[in-house]
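Thread: quick sanity check before group meeting

JM: Hey all, I'm pulling together slides for Thursday and realized we never actually wrote out the predicted structure for the chain we discussed last week. Dropping the sequence here so it's in one place. If anyone has concerns about the input, flag it before I start.
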Amino acid sequence: MGDDPLSSGGGGSSSASAGMTLGECQDLIQKSFTNPMVKFLMENLEKSGCGIGSNFIKAENCKENAAGGFARGIGIVICSNHLQFQDEVDQTVIHELIHAYDDCRAANLDWTNCAHQACSEIRANHLSGDCHFKRELLRGHLKIKRHEQECVKRRAIMSVTANPCCSEVAAKDAIESVWSTCYNDTTPFTRPP
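JM (edit): ok, ran it. Output follows.
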């Protein structure tokens, strides 16, 4: 995501019946730190010189209809009012840690630049498992061939279009222009997980 942390300023408990309280979400965030991919990404952030403090990943109630977000200088927000399960929290933490890693390793990353955000969204959707066949099946997308690439593009377009600096046309153009380079960039992994 960009520089908008998505939050509504905190609060006590979830306002959406499908979500969870901030405390419940914070507990699931703590449990996510035992997930091997979360641990791997956090270790690689540290190795890259971007240590993360104890409050880098936090639960908040979000105005936006999103699972979470990353903002430079703020950290990762996990939207408690839009999530219910440990797997959802793990997936969101992994996705957002990839954005944090990209922000750390690219000194000139500009989140208002559609191509820059497109690259990070392609990487986050591809490397986090957001587009695993099982997840796509549960979303009602029943395509066998090239489902992962189509999912990555679809989800990247949704995220980049949410950036006020990027129209849908600009988002699609940006994704096409960086697709090959960014889809094939699996750093810090040696191959797609």
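AS: nice. The chain has seven helices and three strands. Strands lie at 57-60, 68-71, 75-79.
JM: adding both to the slides.
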